[in-house]
Amino acid sequence: MIDIADLDFAYPRGGFRLDVPRLTIERGARVAVVGSSGTGKTTLLNLVAGLQVAARGHVTVDGQNLSALSDTQRRAFRARRIGFIFQNFALMDYLNARENVLYPYRIAPGLVLDDAVRARAEALATACGIEDRLDRHPGALSQGEQQRVAICRALVTRPGLILADEATGNLDPHTKTLILDLLFERAAEAGATILAVTHDHALLPRFDRVIDFSELRRAA
Ligand SMILES: Nc1ncnc2c1ncn2[C@@H]1O[C@H](COP(=O)(O)OP(=O)(O)OP(=O)(O)O)[C@@H](O)[C@H]1O
């Protein structure tokens, strides 16, 4: 479950401020966030992932208040519990696709990389149609292939929360449907919550709830 209350966030150099009086999302819910460009949707996902921390208010994920954690604890919490599909993929250039998919196992204490995890990574790659690209580095992959690597990385830990920032924006219609089916299927298996930013209104019927960002900032 996600619980946000009295959130007030500003970037250090100023300019943009995000205030969210209240937002509650039940565990297992599939929620889409829509809204104009630059309104703060990515910033909200970053706050839910603990990549940014607000000066005022709190963000609680599965009972854990993120601002009560140190940077190191937040990083570990994120790697173990959250699958984040970044808008710009955020792949590591120095790692090949397979190593990128398994990246959470490099950084989270307590996550053990064993044969079962390796098999899961391969199976996810196969389901996404990138199984023959796993030895390549991101620079030798198309945008759509990089996006699918990022999706596999977000799912490999079987997280309780999936944050998706335009997660299928670079995919053709057929692949988009395939990947979304996979995302929803894996989330359902794990009882995971999905919080997805999208500009693609054709996808909205797939979600339980749609949040219009402009309304969220006033009240939700
Ligand atoms: N690191 C930063 N420092 C200062 N301002 C930032 C930073 N990152 C984003 N912003 C500003 O914060 C505002 C919200 O950005 P954000 O990326 O959250 O919007 P968005 O709704 O996700 O946009 P889009 O739909 O275009 O992806 C924008 O005005 C942006 O310029």
From TrEMBL:
ABC transporter domain span: 2-219
Protein name (Swiss-Prot/TrEMBL): Putative ABC transport system ATP-binding protein
InterPro entries, alphabetized: AAA+_ATPase (IPR003593), ABC_transporter-like_ATP-bd (IPR003439), ABC_transporter-like_CS (IPR017871), ABC_transpr_LolD-like (IPR015854), MacB-like_ATP-bd (IPR017911), P-loop_NTPase (IPR027417)
One Pfam family matching this protein: ABC_tran
Organism of provenance: Citreimonas salinaria
Sorted UniProt keywords: ATP-binding, Nucleotide-binding, Transport
Superkingdom of the source species: Bacteria
SUPFAM superfamilies: P-loop containing nucleoside triphosphate hydrolases (SSF52540)
Residue ranges crossing the lipid bilayer per the database entry: none
GO cellular component: plasma membrane
GO molecular function list: ATP binding; ATP hydrolysis activity; transmembrane transporter activity
